[in-house]
Structure formats: structure tokens, C-alpha cells
């Protein structure tokens, strides 16, 4: 095969076309005349990847040879989205690509569409990780993203004829993946099981089985930085050879058992864990990528030596634990230093403590991960011993600080009850150098409520870093029309590197001509989304209605139920004649959400939304005033179409439950107004965009807590509010289930007897704010003035700013070029 030389930089369009022709010939085995669109996509990606290679290698060399500490971002999820457009933008090759591909006789957008989106995340956690590694590269900070290359990722969502969610495997690797480079020579061994024995006065782990962790590297190019970092995802393979003798006995399943067992580890993101086997697989996943990543970092930073000086490890790299999934890495680094390299406990502890930091992404106690000690002992017996010693050390430290017996019991990392569990968030909080929340309110509630005991004892550990989103993907790529208008208004495109420059748009909110241009951009985006929805889903959307959107994981605390009950109440008012349909502001309500496969009430809520949509669609009395659209399998591609088209963003979670949110930031940056509670980053968004440019409703955190303390009875809200009662009664009487009163009985029962997240208590306030929304929407000039002010004042919510906060407050490192 002829070697393809690295392309010149920068490429011209003709050079780019020549490179694509070469790649078609030597990688795809076709001529441009024979090529299909997918061939051109793979060839283009190959060219772009090769173009980035020199910068990638230089970044790695500068990181290893210099004195700049790297960042290791450990995350179970990386929801990257499609890569081609992003790589072209960050490499400065978009115009050349467009011209080159057209010159070859292909539609550039069709080439982009040929890429299959990897479903390697479940929602905000994974998308945040993707934004952060984009910003790290754009700021020139050396970094590795470490995770798992799931074969199937998150499930592909479908809806059946009854509106129920069906989970299908999402085999995103079914087609060629030109971005990931598999490096078999840099694999790592990850051990499991067995026992710990005493040998020559030392504790020695004798594992019973092992898997091979094979790295798959993805380049992460920074925007206009000349730096390219690495996303290293691990595949699990077996060390055991295929048992041909057993296979030839027609015992086919037995012959492949070791391979299946190993490969299951990297097969599916978040396997269902309601069973013991499922829990075991989840813990195997977490240890698999944490162990492989730590060993890999040692290999990277201490090349060509069998005896690295690991006392300097924390000066080489700092690990950020993105939630509790990688926390098992803490006892793993202790084990590596003590068992593999012979360091004493105190030295290993000092290095481990300096190396790790922990981001907590929840306020819900049930979401703070715990593992049965028996399960850790079964899979990782040496780690359980280390955790036991960490816990003992922790208790001694607390006693020395004067903690009470009750407080110590509350704070135990390893509980002392009949069935002890390991509290992973507590382990991360004690062992790591810093703990951060992801919004000002969230960080305060972590200190005041969720991790209060730890905050009382270790107040200096607690920091805040409010989340952010990358403007490259979520404005420039997702919203090219608005991007052009912003550049026109500001007279520069430097805002992509410094989003605070958006403040320059604020005076233009008083310029009627600019406001009209902004309104035209929003309308064009609505038309584009309607066209996309027609083509992809067969949905008929009216771009002249208000696009009212709620996109987020389906969970009770996020309160999709509140939204659908308000829609039902409006529908009931129309049907009963209380409201003239002609007086209704026409709205298209758009939902995007997946529910965890085992989350019964969440899946039932999806079914209800779909069936309310069906009933309303088939009712001529509504006369096109209300439309519900629920696109299945919501993902980054859909988000990039929907967010720019949205006019009203729903952020209606119960106050005190959402850690931050990032969809709220994306919407504000793209010129949507928010209706929301004082929860998560909503608080900071409202402060920055202005209270007059945000629709606020609902109880505060203090009011919620007071109601919990006093005792909450949802049925009294049902009885007191005729609109709410009518809506729930319609659900209960079978209006949306073909007359079957049992279909939604569990949901109705939960609303009326439990309603833990107080949907019913906030219903009236949520209904009342709709009149304010309608009144403002009727004045389109004023609505769009406020939308522009949302854009102008949202620069703070760039992930570049978030990363700078991490650099200053937690990681204490810098760009390679400073």
C-alpha cells in the first residue's frame, strides 16, 4: 500500500480534494466515481485525522518533556456527538472541506450525515465531559479523557404503538469508525477476583481472572490553539485463547465463555443493575477503566523505566473524578504504589491524596453510589483491605478532631452494620484534595446538606465550579445563522474564544433592525427544525407556533409530569368550553428524553406524553393550537437542530434537586427564554441575564425543605385546584388510554399519595406564569429583545470559563504555551 504523506498545513481546497481522492483509493479501495457518501465521509475523516497528527504528537511530547501538569478526566461517559464538523471547525478546515467535497460531486451535509453518532453517554454528565475536553484542548492544557469504548453505548430508544419506550441495542460501531485508533501494543492487564495471602510479611493479591484493556485513541483538537489532546477509551478483551477442542465437540457456548465474560465489561453503558449479576458487571466496568487509566498514566509519564519515582506522580497528572464511577481508582493507586512499587502506606497516601479530586453531580442521597463490601471483597479483595484501612485511618482522624460518635458513624466510609457497604462519595471526599459542586446553589447545598459533616470537618476542600458548554459545538456548529449575526453585530469572530465578548450584543437589543434580524434567524431555525422533523420523524410542525421545549433525562425530580399536566389542563379547558380555543397562544410542545430501562414511573410518563400527543393530534377541537412532539432517541444531532429553534426553555425541576443543568445554558446562549425554578444553574442564569428576562415560578429550596418537615399531602392540592383536578382525572379515567383506567393508575396513585418532588404543589404557580409568557410572546419585538439579552449575558456559561476555574481553584496547572 502506498504511504499517504501528512498533508500540508493549511490545506487549500484542491489539496484537500487530492487527499480525499488518495484516501478513497488507499483506504476505501474505490475511485471518486465508485464512492458512496459513506466512503467520502471515512476518507475525509482519515484526511482530517492525519492533518491533526503532527499537532497531536507535539502536544504529547511537550506534555511529557515539559513541567506542565496534565489533567486526567476520568468519566464513565463521554457524549461526544458527531466528530467531523467539530474537527473541521477546530482545525480551521471547514471552507476547504465544503469546496473540496462539492468539487468531488458530493453534498457536504450528506457526507456529515453519514457519520453515526456514538451513544457513549446518558445525558448531561457525558456531554459535560465532552465539553470539558474540548475546552482543555482549546485552552492548550494537556489532558487525557479516560473512559470506556462501549460496543453498544446507551440504548437506541423507540416507541411502540402504545407509546411505550422500547430499548434497542445501539450498535454504533456497526459501520467504520475512522476516528478511533486501536493501539494493541499499549494494552493494560486488569485483574479480578481471587484472594489475598501473606508472603514474606506482605499482603499479596492472587487474582483468579483478568481482562485485557486495549486503548482506542480519539484526537481532541482545540479550537485555533494548535493543540490536540487525547480521549482514550478502553475496550475489554479476554486473555484466554479460544477453546478449539471444546468448540469441536459442538460445545459452542462453553468454548467462548471467557471471551464473552471479558467483552461484556465494555459492551453496554450502565447495564441494568437490579440483579446481583448486574451490580457485579457495573463494578467490573468501573474498576476496569480506572485501573487501566492509572497504569496508562504511569506508562505515559515514566517511559523507559521499571522503577518510576511515583512520589512525583501528582506533579505529572491530576485526576478529576467525574462523579463516583471512577472512585475505585483511589484504592487502586494505593495498591499500585504499595504492592507493585513497594512504597509505604504514608507515602502512597500522600501521593494519592494530592492526585485525586472529586466532582459530585447530585444532591439526591439515593444517587450517592454505595457498593456492598461483600461484592468488593469478591471482585477486588485487596482493595477492600485498603478501603478498610483508609476507613480506620479516617475514624482516627475524626476522633482526633473531636468528632462525636454519632457524627463518625454518619461519616463512615465503610459502614459497620450487618451488611456493610462502601460509600464511594465519602471515600472520594476524604481521600481527594478537593470536592466541587457544579453550580453555586448546588455547591452550597453540598456543604449544607448532602456532605455537611465533611464540610464541617474539612471546609477548605469544598469548591464551586459552575458548569459550562462549548460555544464551538453549541453555537457555531449548531446555530450558524446566529453565529453569523453575532459576528456581524460584534464586528469580530473572536467571541468563539472569549464568550464574554457577547456582552457587546446588549446595546443591540435596543436596535429594532438588529432585533428583527435576530427574529428572522430564530424563525429560519424553526423552519429548519420543522423540515428536519418531517424528514426524520414524519412529524408536521408549524414554525409559526411557539416552540416550547423540555429536553433532559426522564426523571421524577426533573418534573416532565408538571409539563404534561399543564398541557392536559389547557386541553381540558378547551374541551370544557372554559377557554375559547382562539384565545390560546399556539404552541408546539417538544419533549426529548430517555428513561432508564428499569425506571417504571419514568417510562410510564413517556407513555402518557405520547398518548396525550396522539389524542390531541386527532382532536379537531384543538384546531392546531396545541401540538406535542416527542422525537424518539433524542441525541446530540437532534439537540443541535432543536436548541437553536427553541423559543421557550423548560427548566422546571424541583428546587434543590438539579445539580446544575447544561441544557439551560445552551438554550440561553441560543436565544431562548427560560421558564424555571430557582434550581441548579438556573439561579446564576437568572442573575446574569436579568430577572426581567427569565420566567420564575415555584417554591424555593427553603420552602421545599419546610414542606418536607411539616409533612406534604399532595391530595390537598388536587382538591384545591380545579384545573389540576381535571387534568389528573382525565389521566385516571382513561382519556389517554382508550378508556382503560388501569394504564396510568400507578402514576396517578403516586401523584395523589406521594408526589415526592412536589409536582402538584408547584402546579398553580406554573400555570399562573403561563399568562406572563403568552403576554410577552404576543409582543414579538419585546420577546426578541429579551432573547438577545439572554445571549448577550450568557458568556459566563462557556466551558472555557469552567476549565479556567478548575485550573485556578483545583488543578493548579496551566496551558502548555504559558
TrEMBL record:
Organism domain of life: Bacteria
Reactions the enzyme catalyzes: [(1->4)-alpha-D-glucosyl](n) + phosphate = [(1->4)-alpha-D-glucosyl](n-1) + alpha-D-glucose 1-phosphate
Keyword rRNA-binding: no
Alphabetical list of InterPro entries matching this protein: Glycg_phsphrylas, Glyco_trans_35, Pyridoxal_P_attach_site
Top-level EC class as recorded in UniProt: transferase
Entry keyword set: Carbohydrate metabolism, Glycosyltransferase, Pyridoxal phosphate, Transferase
CDD domains tied to this protein: GT35_Glycogen_Phosphorylase (cd04300)
GO CC term (a single one): cytoplasm
Cross-referenced Pfam families: Phosphorylase
Keyword Transferase: yes
EC number, as in UniProt: 2.4.1.1
Residues modified as N6-(pyridoxal phosphate)lysine: 666
A single BP term in Gene Ontology: glycogen catabolic process
Protein name: Alpha-1,4 glucan phosphorylase
Protein species of origin: Bifidobacterium bifidum
Lineage of source species: Bacteria, Bacillati, Actinomycetota, Actinomycetes, Bifidobacteriales
